[in-house]
Amino acid sequence: MMLAALALVAIVTQDSAALRAAPRESAQQQAVLWQGDSLEVRGEKMDYLQVYDHRRERGGYIRASQVRTQSLEPKDAPDLLAVVRFLRDTPGAEALGISYAAAYLKAAPAEAIGPEPFDALGTMADRLARRASVKRGKTDDTVLSAHLEVASSYGIGMQGFERDGRIQLCYNGEAFRRVLAMKSTDEQRARAALALTRPECVDPNITPTDRNNLDTWRAEILDRVQLTELPEYEKNRLRLRRASVWASIAFEHARQHQPAQEAANRALQELAGVNPEDIAEPDASAYTDAAVRVAASRWAAETEPATGSGLAVISTPGESGETCVALTDAKHDQKNPLAKRCTYGLVWKASASVNAQQTALALAVQPLDSWRELWVFHQGEKGWIVDILPPAANTPDVGYLEFAGWVPGSAKMLAVREARVDGRFKRSFEVIRMDTMDVEKQADNPRSLSLFYRWQDPAWKRGTLSMRR
Amino acid sequence: MSERLESLLQGLLALLTTTISAIGAALASLGRTARRAWVLLLAIALIGGSGYALFTHPPFKTLEPGEVGIRTNKLTGSATEIKEGLVVVIPGLHELRRYSLLDQVYRPVRSSKANGEAPFQSIEGLSLGVDLTIRYTIDPTRLAAIAQKLPTDINGEIVEPMVQGVIYKSFTRYSVRDIFSTKRGEIQKEIENELKPKLAADGIILRGVQMGQVDLPPEYRQGMEKLLAEELESEKMKYTLELKSKQVQQTELEAEADKVKREKSAEAAGNEQIIAAKAQEEAMKHVLPFKQKQIEQRQYEAEAEKVSRIKTAEGSAEARRIEASGEADSRHKLADVEAYRLETIGKVTSAQLERDGALISKNPLLIQKTMADKLSDKISVIIAPPPANGGFIGSALLGGAQTGSAQGQQASATAPQETQQ
Question: Where is the signal peptide (chain A) (predicted)?
Fold first, then answer.
């Protein structure tokens, strides 16, 4: 809007540039300008330009060396685009880059504008948001907030969510939406889709219905990108994102009593399509995150087995949204179960595993889309009891605890645990004592535990995602 | 039926009787007047004539379905009602009249057009034609009684005059508009009500009066049509308004349904949120005991660490104490040894001094020699005035001399300065 009225603008290229009342270094300072600020050029005096700052609604003088004067004629558009290309991948120069991109969009004729400036605009805005969300020293604070304000003056919208006690800033993705709507290259589309579907930019306080709609939209956006022409590491990024999105969709479908098998299979396929050799270093954490999310809801892909005459679980609806699990055997039916417990989570009956003595049963229950618990029904001194093992002793976040086998002749079981604790993923293969539910032994690798290596369940080994490379 | 058969038998019997009696009479007469041939010929002619007459005018008639016949005996004047089927009608003796019991229709054609021969007049005096249809039938129950009185042309002689008399009168009481559109039914009813008793009096039942097309005078028709069109518009508007009102109602209902749907959906979404929150809370609840356990374990660990540290500190203190005690003992021993050593040394020194004293007393110059020996490696030159008394040169330095202490002091103050130089 501001640029519309101008044919010649001065773009501030340095941070903390002073707008002075007179063309002298000693003159009073009217405002502090930051890189990317646009000023209307009204005259020139000595080494100073007489300018007017429309954003702050004040005029003054600025040293000519601190600004670049740009003409907004169509013939100058390629020059502006060249600067945008240069600044696109320059960290710290996002505000300046956004300013040049805006100037290009103003100068270039409408028919000449392709997806490239929008891609650059989105990339810079996204990087600025990420820069603002990570912990930095205090010296950067002033500059960062000023850059955010400059970006905001060009219509770059930011959304903020509270996550782990601090605000996470996210770009609203308007430029990327334009890239997707235009005839863009696969790489541009991939960048746009990845930026629009960032998991950390999903509002944690969103309602389940909205979350479902959002995930469906995210899956659709990710499916719009053709993978064939992309480099392998980019393909992996998209597959990882798709896998985690489809895992969430599978959980949501199962929660709404809709068929979830297709979505869960899709998540598994996408994860299986990832080539671990070609994962870029910054994506290693995303790979683990996606794998844990898919593993948490992997039982949605399995069909429910028919219950036999031995130890089995039967689920019945309890109160609204509640599922009650009853443990039955040949002598105890659903009305007189051995044990019963109700939950608001999803009960994966396909995961039920009974030991050879018929004295214990392990069951996977998933209360959140990325958090799966292990329920262990076992015979105690006073009858059957159920113990619930969460993946980690922190706030439910991303993680799963999976049954991996029974140790014959002893009250021990094998389990694998993978969860994010304090921002880091930890995976451990454990031998658990069933009487106390304490971890007797644990290791990073199943080969390191002889009990684990010897007695692991073949069915678990066939389906688990914890043995990935 | 039996009545009809009886009548048929009677007729046949009468015919047979008549024929036999005639033949018998002829034969008797033949027998009596056999000789008279002309009589015979006459008889033959008579029989032939009768046969011909019977052939040409058979004594039977057939009544069609829906017809009823009244047979009148000309001799007796009695009338018999006969239903459909075969009926004996002896020519000369009987006369049969047929009446149809089916519905008859009368249409006054002359008054069906506004510009026809005899149009109707409305209350305004305008000519108009109405296509009327009067449906009637003869009352079968009264037919036998009134058959004698009924004219041959019932339609033309009874129905038409009566209808004319009623309908003209009726139409003059209404306006063209009433006749044309609004009061058709009423007019029809009125005509029926008036006509019915009149026709009934003549044994005719009026089935109904139907009013068909109304032919208006052309000018009036135009005006009327315009008016009607306006009325139609007004009616249309009425219906349009009704439709609009219904549409409004429908929109209201739809909005209501939508509202309910949204409410339900919001409720469902709310429920989902509650369930999700409960699931999260439940998951947290499951975590808490482990967290508690973790904290307890850490406490135990801390306790154990504390105990271990205390024990270590105690051990360390004890060790130090033992060490200190050992050290003290050791020092004590060392001190004893030192004391013994010092004592021994003292004794040795005393003995040495004693020996030295004895030696010096014996040789006094030994002191000077010793001093000179001791100073020899530190002082290379000593500039000092020779003692006036011709004594030892170093006595002024030693201060040991009894005399001239001030001089001695001065010399000692100067000497180091010299030596330093």
Answer: 1-17
Nearest C-alpha of chain B: how many angstroms from A202? 16
Same domain, yes or no, for B51 and B65?
Answer: no
Q: Where are the alpha helices (DSSP H) in B140-217?
A: 143-146, 154, 160-172, 176-177, 184-201
Q: Which domain holds residue B124?
A: 61-225
Cβ–Cβ below 8 Å for A208 and B276: yes
Same domain, A226 and A290: yes
Domain extent, residue A231, equals 206-301
Same domain, B30 and B77: no
On whether both A18 and A63 belong to a single domain, the answer is: yes
Q: For residue A422, tell me if it sits in a domain.
A: yes
**Do A254 and A337 belong together in one domain?**
no
- Give this complex's ipTM: 0.78
Q: CA A60 to CA A57: how far, in whole Å?
A: 10
Chain A residue at shortest CA distance from B291? A393
Strands (E), B74-166: 79-82, 85-88, 94-100, 104-106, 120-121, 127-138
Distance from CA of B307 to the nearest CA of A (A): 24
Task: Flag whether residue B303 sits within 8 Å of chain A, measured between CB atoms.
Answer: no
Is B297 an interface residue toward A (CB < 8 Å)?
A: no
| Among the partner residues A207, A344, A395, nearest to B279 by beta-carbon distance | A344
Per-residue burial over A410-448, b = 16 or more CB atoms within 10 Å of its CB, e = otherwise: ebbbbbbbbbbeeeebebbbbbbebeebeeebbeeebee
Predicted TM-score (pTM) of the model is 0.62
Q: Are residues B45 and B194 both part of a single domain?
A: no
Interface of A with B in 317-376 (CB under 8 A): 320-322, 343-345, 367-368, 371, 373
Strand order in the sheet with B79-82: B79-82, B67-73, B94-100
Where does a domain end: A13, A40, A71?
A: A71
Q: Does B295 touch chain A (CB under 8 A)?
A: no
Report the DSSP beta bridge partners of residue A424: A421
A393–B294 CB contact, under 8 Å: yes
Out of A321, A322, A390, closest to residue B283 by CB: A390
B275 and A373 in contact by Cβ < 8 A?
no
Give a yes or no: residue A374 inside a domain: yes
B275 touching A (Cβ < 8 Å): yes
